[in-house]
Fold this protein.
Amino acid sequence: MFERIVFATDGSTAAERIVLYVEHLAKVEKAEVIVCHAYELPTHYNAVERYEKLAEEYSLVAQAVVDDAVEQLRQGGASAQGLIRLGVAADVILAIADEVDASLIVMGARGTPSLAEMLLGSVSHQVVRRSRRPVLFVP
């Protein structure tokens, strides 16, 4: 039923627990998992001389978040790959789901909110409201 699962992670301890659900689901469904993580750069520092270094560090941390989840899934016997993207989390998750033709999006019901999320609503709320694909929330 599910061939390709997009697992959106924010790197939180809650998201680390969700990996177990995703691993089980992927093995039962014989599905490929695409672990994704979106990150945003603090633009108020963009005039600072070392901004490029800061942007590079953000990218490295984002990649580490994805690599950890991918490794855990693979060790559990699931097929997994990772993608990181710069951008607003809900937009990135939905774009990746479209790009890989996901059968399902899996994400936590609560994450660590950014300022934009606090003002506009949670990432999970935005994803489920805008998605044309099934979304599974794991508490």
